[in-house]
User: Fold this.
Amino acid sequence: MKICHQREIPVVPQGGKTGLVGGSVAEDSGTLLLSLSRLNQIEDIDSTDFTVTVGAGVVLESLHQTLSEQDLHFPMHLGSEDSTQIGGLIATNTGGSHAFRYGMMQDLVLDLDVVLPDGRIWRGARAVTKDNSGFQLRKLFCGSEGRLGVITRAVLRLYPAARRAATALVAIPDIETMTDAGRIRRRDLGDFLMALEFFDDPILRLALKHIPDLRCPLEDAAGFYLLAEIATSHASLDPEEILTASLERVFETGRASDAVLAQSEAQRAEIWRLREELPEGTLREGRQLKHDISVPVSRIPEFMAKCAPGIETILPGARIWAFGHLGDGNIQLSVSPPFGQQAFAGQDDAINLAVYTAAESLSDSFAAEHGTGRSKPAVADRLRSNVERSLMESIAKAFSPEERMNPGVIV
Assistant:
């Protein structure tokens, strides 16, 4: 980093290359791509303090496997965990399926080691929960997408591993009922609830169409599906009994038409595979526009009601697929061209703006967990205030006045 600073060479840090907004790609041939993959050591696991110290290149799945041997758990889960790296998760402040329970990556990071743009090293890996000795510098780097420096090492918060778990897939007639059913689940299941995911029937049909050996265990189709998982570290508690009681209440109130409770680890994996293969199903259908939206959970139906007509007006017959994290209101919304078309008839930007504007009117985030990267700074300039954008630019220039650290990302 010091050499690049002296020779005025732009640097783009690169992790597992699983990002969706172009944050780890170089636009200029004179840019140095800096891979962190060899910083892959799991250095220290502290079962007393419930922390782990890792290199930025540690793959998430590898960390999960190592921790499971010591009955510990790092509560970050996403479909790409077999290749995504810890440094990238921090740099994009990833959320994942358990964010509503444990928070985003910034809530799981206790401290960091970072190489700054000029080659200086900030060693902040203190491994303590409470530290109010000044600005929370680690929070600046969470979500900075490599714009402020290169994360090399992190101390992460751990939790006891679950000893027993239960997983269910529920068929729900419509989006309003689904949102209400999710509210009941959160109220009934409380601290046991680990994940609350949703997807619509059209995207499920795409996945079943394109992904070999994928099957849905439900007998009846519905407008939407709710995936709920609960777990406990208490061996004496029965999560299946708790989840079954909650399901019964959902059926009694008419909010569900069908449900299945996983009876084995294999069936649990089958249910989760349905959820995790949804993005691949849409990709195999052809060209699409992807959107990473976050709105208040209570306003998800309102967002969809605003969004769909706007897209239809711009491009009649456009197909919309939706899935995401019901627990925190994060919607992954994809738009495909009408049947028989391979492109969007030049309406790409108009469709994107319609989605972002619909969300903006509902106290949204147009970049819920994938970041801004190189694909969304223009959207941010349009939808965020000048004060907010100016503050971000000031922070970026404070770390790299020459703006050679991942230039073009965020601001």
Remarks:
- The first strand starts at residue 11 and ends at 14.
- The chain has a mean pLDDT of 91.
- Residues 164 and 232 are 6 Å apart (CA to CA).
